[in-house]
Design goal:
The complex is a heterodimer. Chain A is of the alpha/beta class. Chain A contains 13 helices and 19 strands. In chain A, strands 7-6-8-9-10-14-15 form a seven-stranded mixed beta sheet, sandwiched between helices. In chain A, strand 17 and strand 18 form a beta hairpin. Chain A is globular. By secondary structure, chain B is mainly alpha-helical. Chain B has two domains: 183 residues, no CATH class; 277 residues, no CATH class. Helices cover 68% and strands 4% of the residues of chain B. In chain B, strands 3-2-1-4 form a four-stranded antiparallel beta sheet. In chain B, strands 5-6 form a two-stranded antiparallel sheet. Chain B is elongated. The N and C termini of chain B lie far apart (76 Å). Classes of the chains: A alpha/beta, B mainly alpha. The interface between A and B is large, with 54 and 60 residues. Chain B: Keywords: Amino-acid transport, Cell membrane, Membrane, Signal, Transmembrane, Transmembrane helix, Transport. Chain B: This is Urea ABC transporter permease subunit UrtB. Chain B: InterPro entries: ABC_transp_permease, ABC_UrtB_bac, ARM-type_fold, BCAA_transport_permease. Chain B: Belongs to the binding-protein-dependent transport system permease family. LivHM subfamily.
């Protein structure tokens, strides 16, 4: 083992030396561009989701440069590959900030990758835009959360099912990690506060990449035949979804009997399944490719032209990056500098149009306002929006439905605190 | 919901009578499809279904299939041939003015469609449609369908349809307030004979107005059904276990040759499975574009190709890398692990990181009901396939000259060499055989799992577990190992949950390997190298 360590250390030292020398050589040139870091896995398990986001970032940077860049300088995207390896996310984040001197980083997907880069962004005082729906219960000065918090996705979805589909029995099915566990905890508390009895809630967790769903789907069928309308709320992640939906179709679970509403299934995930047997199952997001607005149409056209693939789909986290990038550009223009401290102060209150026809705003808790859309799966692998909120919903960093977090607020503008306790009047809970 | 719909229907009927001279309820209802509101569409379906208009079934079926179009306040049906007809008059419509949009559906509307079509198609000449209709009425429990149901039962001659009709009638009678208790008791009897999950749900959720003797009879019937279901549940779990075991067997059996008989720790084994799955994808793509008629046979066509692709990659691997590393297990492990990463990233670069869609041929969709068990056809196919592959491999090793050479080299390499067997050639072929078998496993796994660059990773650990547990160097051990692990996993899962079940199984295997390091079926005697 020690030999391996030695070689690895030597290698790293060599690489670092090489990078430093090339960095000094380019120092003069670096003055002319503003660098933007892209921290998404291009290999390993998460490449399936994250590669697309890297492409979106490259497209946005190119587009901004066509408009004349930012503050009179050209933008330059620096792409690194953290390879779906959580500790490597932290190393790569450090590399982006210390060596490449980026002004902001757009990246991370899983909650664990976000948690692993947090200390780096705090220590080196830089900015991270995180584009994925997540479990909430967090607000950091250096992070901007452009994906949905639970109250912008999970809670409205459950409300829709209870109201429109008259659901009385709930299956909360998820992959066994932090996002589904926290989301299900919030949902369970919320459902119980609405008068749902404990015996009408079934919670089931499965390991990452679970592929044999026979027993669980049969259990869901059994749970759903108790005479009350039943629905499945799915926080099943990534790869496990395809076999799950295939098994649902095989066992004949139809959306008209037991609808499944998913929080991690978008256009990209559906691209790998025959969706005809799944028509009517639901997903809750803040954006669908099928949304009929001029902004979205223009974006999809640009996206297809940029990727040179007329079949390429768009999805929710992509929209989050579009919003996040535009907010950052506006904030830098407002501040007149890319200095992270100034940008962090300037960005709160910035408003940019989203792709669904509204205007999203960056809030003092570093989350944004978004509409909530419920879509039903169509036979062509797209979603048909069947319901949406009248107004934009403000993201809550701390859930109102959990003990211990309902008294907390995050406000980086006046309170300068991410977890201010309104009862004890202290920062740091 | 149902009450509201009935109320609306009555209301529309009244409305219809008032203006009967001008237009019937059917014509009154049609414009409601144009308002782009799910509630209106729902109400319109009920009114159209109750109108008795000969076009009603056409309209509702067109709505279900997305062929009901609206534009400039009028409703049109698009025929399968592409012709448009005006839904109000039934006449052909040449050039519509303005853009036509299909009426949008959601689950609520789909349920209304199902219920409406159910009561309208009870007398359809097609028995399959009648069966579907009877099931739809069973689910909707619409009291208004009762007269139509009685009529259908009186003239039904097909036994399965008649049974379905009778259960539907029983379901309605049980929830109907003014049905006489004797009828309700007969309904309980009918549902008890049906004896499945849905019947149990009905019997254990009687409405509050049910008379006491009916409640007592239903309680007894429900207990009987519960006992029967619990009995069948055990078989169902064993079946799930066998089907999981077959998947494990398929994934591990190639490894049983390369690891079991050649002692090569091949970490790239999972990637051979993945190559097989991608070959299936390629074959289906070609068939979709050039020979759409052959789609049903696409998997059979993919089998030999997947064997060839994965097998030749295996031979190449053996010739270029692994043959230099025989007898050095640690280096083999690291080298093949590197190769597995290279193959994954290669596939990712060529096909993209996202999942690829592999279709399921029609003959593999659906389920077979045996007692209270439901066996899905694709699982049956995989179980049969896994056992066939096992049998063929066993025969190849037992009765072909290649099999003889492989066994000879496995048992004593130097002796076999002295007898004139070209051991290096046998190594390459055996490795190719193991990899090829992994490739055809990929064809089967493409039916139940993601076809993505990560496909193989999910199976590599399980495969090694099966081979080590079953006993290295023995195909029968692999079979027993795969089935034991599959069934144990599925029997544990309902009690311990998927996560804990897997942990418990891993601990059990660790303990077992401590007691018997050579697995279930250990090779004995001189064969075992020290």
């Amino acid at each position: 083992m020690s030999i391996f360590d030695m070689t690895r250390r030597n290698l790293m030292a060599l690489t670092a030396a090489a990078l430093v020398s090339s960095a000094t050589a380019q120092a003069a040139k670096a003055e002319e561009t503003i660098k933007v870091g892209v921290l998404h896995s291009l290999s390993g398990t998460m490449a399936i989701s994250e590669t697309t986001l890297k492409d979106v970032m490259l497209m946005l940077v190119e587009e901004q440069n066509k408009k004349g860049g930012l503050l009179g300088k050209k933008l330059e995207a620096v792409v690194v590959d953290p390879a779906s390896n959580w500790p490597l996310f932290a190393e790569k984040a450090r590399e982006l900030i210390s060596q490449h001197k980026v002004s902001a980083v757009f990246g991370a997907w899983t909650s664990v990758s976000r948690k692993s880069v947090l200390p780096v962004f705090k220590e080196l005082n830089n900015i991270l835009f995180y584009p994925v729906q997540y479990e909430g219960e967090e607000s950091e000065r250096n992070v901007f959360y452009t994906g949905a918090a639970p109250n912008q996705q999970a809670i409205p979805a459950v409300d829709y099912l209870a109201k429109e589909e008259k659901v009385e029995r709930w299956v909360l099915a998820g992959t066994d990690y932090v996002y589904p566990r926290t989301t299900n905890k919030i949902l369970e508390a919320y459902l119980k506060s609405k008068g749902v009895k404990a015996e009408d809630i079934m919670i089931s967790y499965t390991p990452f990449g679970h592929s044999d769903w026979q027993t669980i789907v049969a259990d869901i069928k059994k749970f759903g035949s108790a005479g009350k309308k039943t629905a499945v709320v799915s926080t099943i992640n990534g790869d496990a979804n395809v076999p799950f939906y295939k098994e649902l179709a095989n066992q004949g679970v139809k959306a008209t009997d037991i609808p499944v509403v998913a929080f991690s299934v978008g256009e990209e995930e559906l691209a790998g399944i025959d969706t005809k047997p799944l028509v009517g199952h639901l997903a809750a997001w803040n954006y669908f490719q099928s949304v009929d607005t001029p902004e979205n149409k223009a974006f999809i056209e640009k996206w297809k032209a940029y990727t040179k693939n007329p079949k390429r789909v768009s999805n929710d986290p992509m929209e989050a990056h579009v919003i996040g990038f535009n907010m950052w550009v506006k904030a830098v223009e407002k501040a007149g500098t890319t200095d992270p401290d100034k940008v962090i102060d300037a960005i709160v209150g910035i408003k940019v149009p989203n792709l669904t026809g509204g205007v999203s705003e960056m809030l003092p808790n570093h989350h944004i306002t978004k509409p909530v859309l419920i879509g039903e799966i169509r036979a062509d692998g797209q979603f048909d929006t069947v319901w949406q909120t009248d107004d934009l919903v403000a993201g809550d960093a701390w859930s109102k439905h959990l003990e211990g977090s309902k008294d907390l607020v995050a406000d980086w503008q006046t309170l300068k605190c991410g977890n201010y306790n309104t009862v004890t009047k202290k920062c740091g809970s | 919901m149902i009450v509201l719909r009935k109320f609306l229907r009555a209301f529309l009927l009244l409305l219809g009578m008032a203006s009967a001279a001008l237009a019937g309820p059917y014509e009154e209802a049609l414009p409601r499809f144009t308002s782009d509101s799910y509630a209106d569409t729902d109400a319109a379906i009920g009114a159209v279904a109750a109108s008795g208009n000969p076009l009603a079934v056409d309209v509702i079926e067109a709505l279900r299939d997305g062929r009901l179009l609206v534009g400039s306040g009028q409703v049109f049906i698009r025929r399968a041939s592409g012709d448009l007809i005006n839904a109000a008059t039934g006449q052909a419509w040449g050039n519509p003015a303005g853009e036509l949009k299909p009426v949008r559906l959601n689950n609520r509307v789909r349920r209304a469609i199902e219920a409406a079509l159910g009561s309208l198609t009870l007398l359809n000449p097609d028995a399959a449609k009648r069966l579907e209709a009877a099931r739809a009425v069973f689910r909707s429990r619409d009291e208004a369908a009762l007269p139509a149901l009685e009529k259908a039962i009186a003239q039904e001659s097909h036994v399965p349809v008649r049974n379905a009709l009778e259960t539907a009638r029983a379901a309605i009678l049980l929830s109907k307030q003014d049905a006489p208790p004797t009828q309700k008791l007969t309904a309980v009897q009918t549902l008890r004979d049906r004896s499945d999950q849905e019947a149990l749900a009905l019997l254990s959720n009687l409405p509050a107005h049910a008379p006491p003797e009916v409640v007592a009879a239903a309680g007894k019937a429900a207990d009987g059904i519960r006992a029967r279901l619990a009995f069948w549940q055990a078989f169902q779990n064993v079946w799930y276990g066998i089907s999981l075991g077959s998947v494990l067997l398929l994934a591990a059996i190639g490894l049983a040759i390369t690891f079991g008989t050649m002692s090569v720790i091949n970490m790239a084994h999972g990637e051979m499975v993945m190559l097989g799955a991608y070959t299936t994808f390629m074959v289906q793509e070609l068939i979709r574009s050039y020979f759409p008629g052959l789609f049903g046979a696409s998997l059979l066509i993919a089998l030999p190709l997947a064997f060839l692709v994965a097998g030749s990659v295996g031979v190449l691997l053996e010739r270029t890398v692994i043959r230099f590393l025989y007898g050095r297990p640690l280096e083999t492990l690291l080298a093949t692990w590197g190769i597995s990463l290279i193959l994954q990233q290669g596939v990712r670069t060529i096909f993209g990181p996202t999942n690829r869609e592999v279709g399921t041929p029609a003959w593999m969709s659906g389920a077979l009901d045996v007692g209270a068990m439901s066996l899905t056809y694709n699982r049956i196919a995989i179980v049969v396939f896994a056992f066939s592959v096992f049998a063929i491999l066993l025969l190849v090793l037992r009765y072909t000259s290649l099999g003889l050479y492989v066994r000879a080299v496995t048992q004593n390499r130097r002796m076999a060499g002295s007898m004139g067997i070209r051991t290096s050639r046998v190594d390459a072929l055996a490795f190719g055989l193991g990899s090829g078998v992994a490739g055809i496993a990929g064809v089967a796994l493409s039916q139940i799992d993601n076809v993505s660059p990560n496909l193989g990773q999910g199976y590599i650990i399980d495969s090694f577990m099966v081979v080590v547990f079953g006993g290295v160097g023995n195909l029968w051990g692999t079979l027993v190992g795969a089935m034991t692990l599959g069934i144990a996993n599925k029997l544990l899962e309902p009690y311990a949950g998927a996560v804990l079940g897997k942990i418990a199984l891993l601990i059990a295997i660790i303990v077992f390997i401590q007691r018997r390091p050579r697995g279930l079926f250990a090779l004995k005697g001189r064969v075992v190298e020290a």
